[in-house]
Specification:
about 290 residues; alpha/beta; Oxidized Rhodanese, domain 1; 2 domains; four-stranded parallel β-sheet; globular; repeat; Thiosulfate_sulfurtransferase
């Protein structure tokens, strides 16, 4: 991991094993469906953040407010001073998404467990069903930085209508090729959550998120392999990643920003679930950007 641009934001299983009882660290599992993950087994001492129930806004399509975020973390015994180590189901999709949210809400030290649940299970490391109960803290969001993390629909639409995609900005669709071409309207994991139309944002290139990880362990590939995968993505332009709802886009955002050192990367978290459901908006089918 030492070759990555920011090796400090990634930890391995040995680090976690060595720090299971370290009170300066909070291990947090983030699941889309905790009933098939955290509730079955989790890393000893890990607390649970449920993606839909704890981090999504209860009434509108957005994230919890800073005040709600503070309450969630305080209840879990997480303070501003804690080193937070995130991992989870779906190949760390939602852990990476939560890392992105933690950064947008200004947490100082947050890291990802390389390989997440997949690698932990593969190595046969200790697990638990016990739910820890840490003392409540008084977590405070010290800043909110959406500007350098998030792209909104109107910004992407403006880029597309002005013909700037591929010129002034690189738009990366990190979904599978079948989703990108429009052959399918949702990934197999969410087959019942299809968009109205299939296809991709005009000008977007397709680099599926899965190319960045070892399929057996879920760990990120070595930096030289990642550099080849993203070799055609220029570092001197702004990069916007998107997928269906933002979780896979955040995974690629993490790779580009923290592992490869790209200076300007943001996530369009509205993604295809927003774009492909809007009346009259341009959508392209096929393999060409």
């Amino acid at each position: 991991m030492a070759q990555y641009a920011r090796p400090d934001v990634l930890v391995d299983t040995k680090f976690v094993m060595d720090n299971l009882n370290n009170e300066t660290i909070r291990i947090v599992e983030v699941d889309y469906d905790h009933t098939t993950a955290y509730d079955v087994w989790h890393i000893p001492g890990a607390v649970l953040l449920r993606w839909r129930e704890d981090l999504r806004h209860p009434e509108i399509r957005d994230f919890v407010s800073p005040e709600q975020f503070e309450d969630r973390l305080s209840k879990l015994g997480i303070s501003n001073e804690h080193i937070v180590i995130l991992y989870g189901d779906y190949n760390n999709w939602f852990a990476a998404y939560t890392f992105w949210l933690f950064k947008a809400y200004g947490h100082e030290d947050v890291r990802l467990l390389n390989g997440g649940r997949t690698n932990w299970a593969k190595l046969g490391l200790p697990t638990s069903k016990e739910v820890p109960n840490y003392p409540r803290t008084s977590y405070k969001v010290k800043k909110v930085d959406w500007g350098s993390h998030r792209t909104f629909l109107w910004e992407v639409l403006q880029r597309v209508t002005k013909g700037e995609t591929g010129k002034l900005v690189t738009l990366i669709d990190v979904r599978s090729q079948k989703e990108y071409t429009g052959e399918i309207k949702a990934p197999p994991e969410y087959a019942d959550e299809q968009t109205q139309v299939g296809g991709h944002i005009p000008g977007a290139v397709n680099i599926p998120w899965a190319q960045a990880v070892d399929p057996d362990t879920g760990e990120f590939k070595p930096v030289h392999e990642l550099a080849k995968i993203y070799g055609n993505i220029p570092k001197d332009k702004e990069i916007i990643t998107y997928c269906r709802i933002g979780e896979r886009a955040a995974h690629t955002w993490f790779v580009l920003k923290y592992l490869l050192g790209y200076p300007s990367v943001r996530v369009y978290d509205g993604s295809s679930a927003e774009w492909n459901n809007i009346v009259g908006i341009p959508v392209k089918k096929g393999t060409e950007p």
